């Protein structure tokens, strides 16, 4: 248990639960290639899947689960080797998000958001800031949260000498409660210019409401947060000229810095897909062990696994998920290629190339949303009435994917893709594109 600033007792999971894995993995080197990283993520997913249903129902703050991610090394997968990271491309990071989400959608989502926020300085910061924060985050094995919900009013930023000061409120922040650092973003006073900065999470000015009690993704700590007089040095304002107190146009005035948006949208598609794949696997095991054949169909079978309609549904779900996975992997390769080509020379990325990536990502968002919702709801048709028991826990997959697919309306992704197809228009970068 922990007590927040309002003296509310907040139940949390116990990190000592996974102490054996800290001992086990601390004796090993980090995975060295894609297959090894995916194997590590699959191992983490298996551990989480053992009691995912119970943890979902208990809805405790996921301190233990974050410790498991830290022990596994997955938080470091994208970081530079010189600071102890795995130095893998985004396409491998995406696959590990997907694997973890198969076992527990909440923790797959937290891993995905962390990987995005932990690389924020790489995208919108100066080279010096990017290097400094990679060293800080990777060498300390920090977990990163973010309070950057664009639907709310921007945080207000003022200047006080050598520091900037954040104030405001966000209805949603993901993973902040269990984070070491939190990414804040707001608008600088008397301008329309935005500033991103990392701040220490555990300080009086970062006040979590502990009010995340939603239908799904219950272990993501995505509740509201009040930011009150949180100070950080001007030197930490990512991508700003601290002498002139203006955005550094050599950093922020180019398409590269808008890659945060397609990058995180592709994070979404990967944990949607992971959740759906996890549902299909979970349902398949249930059907084999527990679903009964229907005795009133006129073509009676002894086993549910011989039923035509059950085989047909599973086959159809499998085919669509396999197609979705191929599409998501293709988009991941596109993202990795852009980062590999332009991270050293950001000015080379054109608006057109960035827009084409955004349309690959939009395509994955449409397909993983449609397929994920259909599969996670449809598996009940092939498992039977008894599978609706809370003890079985099959419902968590649909609840998880339904919750996050409301993040931003997929209808706008369809419209965006329609304009690309009919008019050859790439989307303007926005907080959701």
UniProtKB/TrEMBL annotation:
Keywords: Flavoprotein, Oxidoreductase. Gene3D superfamilies: Acyl-CoA dehydrogenase/oxidase, N-terminal domain, Butyryl-CoA Dehydrogenase, subunit A, domain 2, Butyryl-CoA Dehydrogenase, subunit A, domain 3. GO terms for biological process: L-leucine catabolic process. It holds the Pfam family Acyl-CoA_dh_N. One of its GO terms (molecular function) is 3-methylbutanoyl-CoA dehydrogenase activity. Residues 49-138 form the Acyl-CoA dehydrogenase/oxidase N-terminal domain. It comes from the Eukaryota. This is Acyl-CoA dehydrogenase NM domain-like protein. It comes from Lepidopterella palustris CBS 459.81.
């Amino acid at each position: 248990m922990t007590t927040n600033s309002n003296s509310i007792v907040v139940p949390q999971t116990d990190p000592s639960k996974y102490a054996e894995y800290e001992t086990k993995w601390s004796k090993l080197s980090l995975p060295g290639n894609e297959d090894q990283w995916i194997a590590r993520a699959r191992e983490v997913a298996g551990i989480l899947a053992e009691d995912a249903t119970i943890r979902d129902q208990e809805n405790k703050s996921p301190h233990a689960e974050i410790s498991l991610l830290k022990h596994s090394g997955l938080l470091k997968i994208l970081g530079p080797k010189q600071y102890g990271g795995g130095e893998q491309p985004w396409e491998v990071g995406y696959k590990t998000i997907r694997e973890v989400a198969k076992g527990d959608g909440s923790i797959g989502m937290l891993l995905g958001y962390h990987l995005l926020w932990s690389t924020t300085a790489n995208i919108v910061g100066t080279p010096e800031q990017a290097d400094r924060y990679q060293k800080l985050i990777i060498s300390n094995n920090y977990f990163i949260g973010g309070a950057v919900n664009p639907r709310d009013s921007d945080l207000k930023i003022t200047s006080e000498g050598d520091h900037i000061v954040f104030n405001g409120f966000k209805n949603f922040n993901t993973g902040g409660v269990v984070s070491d650092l939190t990414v804040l973003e707001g608008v600088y006073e008397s301008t329309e210019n935005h500033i991103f900065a990392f701040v220490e999470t555990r300080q009086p000015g970062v006040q979590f409401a502990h009010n995340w009690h939603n239908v799904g993704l219950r272990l993501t700590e995505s509740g509201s947060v009040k930011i009150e007089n949180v100070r950080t040095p001007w030197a930490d304002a990512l991508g700003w000229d601290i002498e002139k107190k203006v955005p550094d146009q050599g950093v922020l005035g180019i398409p590269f810095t808008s890659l945060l948006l397609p990058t995180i949208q592709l994070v979404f598609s990967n944990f949607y897909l992971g959740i759906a794949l996890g549902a299909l696997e979970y349902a398949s095991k249930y059907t084999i062990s527990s679903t009964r054949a229907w005795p009133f169909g006129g073509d009676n079978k002894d086993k549910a696994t011989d039923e035509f309609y059950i085989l047909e549904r599973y086959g159809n779900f499998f085919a669509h998920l396999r197609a979705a996975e191929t599409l998501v992997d293709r988009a991941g390769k596109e993202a990795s290629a852009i980062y590999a080509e332009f991270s050293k020379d950001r000015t080379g990325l054109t608006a057109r190339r960035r827009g084409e990536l955004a349309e690959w990502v939009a395509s994955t968002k449409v397909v993983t949303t449609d397929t994920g919702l259909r599969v996670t709801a449809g598996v009940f048709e092939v498992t039977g009435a008894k599978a609706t028991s809370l003890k079985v826990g099959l419902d968590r997959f649909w609840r998880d994917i339904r919750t996050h697919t409301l993040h931003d309306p997929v209808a706008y992704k369809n419209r965006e893709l329609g304009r690309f197809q009919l008019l050859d228009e790439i989307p303007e970068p926005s907080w959701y594109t």
